[in-house]
Amino acid sequence: MSKEEDVIINRVAQSKLVTFDLEDYYPSGPRVLLDISQWLFEGIILREKEFRASVKAHDWSQYKDAFVAVHCSTDAIVPGWAFMLLTVELSAYAKKVVKGDLQNLETSLYQSVLENLDLTDFQDKMVIIKGCSKKPVPESAYLLITQQLHPLVKSLMYGEACSSVPLFKRK
Asked: In this predicted model, what pLDDT tens digit does every residue of 89-125 receive, in sequence order?
C-alpha cells in the first residue's frame, strides 16, 4: 500500500454540515418540584387560612436561583389563586416558576431560550440537529427548533453526521 492509501479521511469533519446541539442551550441551575399537597388538609382540601399560614411559614430562600415546578400530587381541586400566591413568594428567589411537573418546566425553559435565539448563522446551511444528549432535553424543544430552523436552512437533518435522518431539503 502506498502512503496515500493509508491516509484515513474524515469526511464528516470536511463536510459543510453544521451541528445544532440543544444541550448547548440547557439552562444551568437546580430544578425543584414543589408539591403543594403538603399544605392541604388531608392532602386534598385547601383551607385558605391554614394554607396561607403554611405558605407564610415556609422557608422560601431554599429556592434561590432554582427553577421551580409547582404541582399538586393529589386529586385535590386547587384554585388558581393558590398557585399565584406561591409564585409571589417564589419570585423573590427562583429564576422561573411554572405550574406542572419537571417536564413542563424543561419545556418552558427551552421555549424561553429558543424563542430568543439568533439563528441567522444557520441561514442557507446544511444543519443537523443533534439527537443524543446527556441532559434532559424535552421532545418539544426538538419540535420548536425544527420549526425555527426550517425556513432558514438549506437542509435539515436529525441525529449524528454519520447516521442522520433527513427532515427537509430546500429545492
From this structure: 999 999 999 999 999 999 999 999 999 999 999 999 9
Backbone angles phi, psi at 85, to 5 degrees: -60, -45
Other C-beta atoms lying within 10 Å of the C-beta of residue 139: 10
* Cell numbers linked to 95: 429564576
pTM of the model as a whole = 0.81
pLDDT of residue 149: 96
Give start and end residues of each alpha helix (H) in the chain.
3-6, 11-14, 48-57, 80-90, 102-115, 139-149
Q: Report the C-alpha dihedral over residues 122, 124, 128, 134, rounded to 10 degrees.
A: 10
CA 36 from centre of chain: 23
